[in-house]
Amino acid sequence: MRRLNPTAIALLAGALVLLLLIYVFAGITRSNTDKLTDEQVAARAASDPETRCGAQGTYDLIKRELFRRAAELRGSNQAAFNQLAGYSVVRMDAPMLKSHDEDIGTITCTGSLALDLPPGVAVVGGRRTLTANVGYAIQPAADGSGDVLTLSNADGVVTPLATLARVGTAEGDPLAPDTPEPGEDPLTAEPEPIVSEPAEPSPPAAAPSPAPAASANPSFNCRLARSRGEIAVCNDAGLAALDRQMASHFNRSMSQASSSERALLERTRGRFIAYRDSCRSDSCIADAYRGRITEIGDIMAGRWRSR
Amino acid sequence: MSEEPAPPLRDDATPVLRTRDLHRSFTQADVTIEVLRGVDIEVRPGEIVALLGPSGSGKSTLLQAVGLLEGGFKGSIRIVGREAAELDDDARTELRREALGFVYQFHHLLPDFNARENVMLPLMIRGAETDEARTRADRLLSALGLGARLEHRPSKLSGGEQQRVAVARALANRPPLVLADEPTGNLDEATADIVFGEFLNLVRGEGSAALVATHNERIAAKMDRVLRLHDGRLE
Description:
The structure holds 2 protein chains of 2 kinds. Chain A is an alpha+beta fold. Helix content of chain A is 48%, strand content 15%. Chain A has helices at 6-34, 38-47, 49-53, 56-74, 78-87, 155-161, 228-234, 237-256, 259-278, 282-300, and strands at residues 89-101, 106-116, 121-122, 129-140, 147-152, 165-166. In chain A, the strands form 2 sheets. Chain A has a 4-stranded antiparallel beta sheet, with helices on both faces. In chain A, helix 4 packs across helix 6 and helix 9 (259-278) runs antiparallel to helix 10. The radius of gyration of chain A is 30 Å and the shape is elongated. In chain A, 31% of the residues are buried. In chain B, the strands form 2 sheets. Chain B has a 6-stranded mixed beta sheet. The model of chain B is unreliable at 1-12 (pLDDT under 50). By secondary structure, chain B is an alpha/beta fold. Chain B is built from 7 helices and 10 strands. Classes of the chains: A alpha+beta, B alpha/beta.
């Protein structure tokens, strides 16, 4: 039998190794075509409704809204509260998706919120952590400027947050570098007292003061309107009137409701807002308001049934 | 020298509350219901006025209006001399915070905070120092017989005690006007009498005025004046 030439053996072995390497690299390339890029992964996570409920961006929106409402309640400088918001942390236990409208990208979620305040400030009772079981809905702004948040059942955080005060000036206090001048600090300044106007003579009974025209404004502040539904309501006096009517009905019911009715009124609120904001026409929004008014009445009369 | 009689309420004193031709209607399923039909009210400083009427007569709607809690009204509302219709949202919030106290049928206390802290909340929101707020809260709660319950959370208090805390919270900032909507409506009759008596004493002691909605004639008779609301009109 003829013996193989060592050179031929080496050439054969080299060819085999080369084939193997080609196979391995080709396989890697094929597998990479099945994988998402980092950008694709991020985009998919951002659009996943479950993920959006627990996304950091959502928590940042919630935090800003909590501090905005607290500043409004306090009647204080929004900038000081914004500054503190930057040093505070929102955590959410068990964020849960309750509903998702794929057409307009609205999600409605619930969760157990905890707001941790930075060192150097505290609320009534010296607390630095506030908690509440909240509902929240996220919807893309009609003008494409980002997401719009609707937050409900947050009074347990907002009201005490409005009592925010400094509790010391420890070194490293995050507020220290930008501490305003005395008298300008919105967290320590005394509010101006209400000064009564001089007494006016009562008008004669036969000629009462003329009633001013009814306001065309809805129950919320149109300067802050961003969702499709809010903008539509702010642009239509009839819808604004329906909004005021619904808000009046809601507030009155909340003041008279049992705890279970209050919880139900809160729970159904997010769904109504999500529905209203999904409307493409004013008549749809009007129907949403009428339905909500009926729903509130049903809740208070014990007739409400989950649909 | 004969003793001077106590001076009457000055006729020219600025009312803490004055409404003129107040209207409110609701439309539902194309049916419009007029809840308030031109209501004129005046409450003078220190005066405690009952707003008496059956359920559905418009009492709560009227309190919502004068409490600046909602819009949609026609007519004039002046609180401590300021015309509500002329105020923007911020000024309206400020007026509500500075001039009004609220007591509802249900206490609406924050469950995570104890009695003292619940009363301190409105004081600190107005900018009071912690020590000042604590002193004031303790004084009010003690006056209502809750001196030993200061650190109890609402869930550890009885219904009457919860409502006393709500009364103390409403009076914490010494508002010129307290608005109360069936403040003892959630309590049994005996407890309601006691709590309402304490409410009246505290309001008088603090020099505030009050407008109290009730459907109870017996409760109404304890106040300085009774306004009867029927079908959206004062009788």
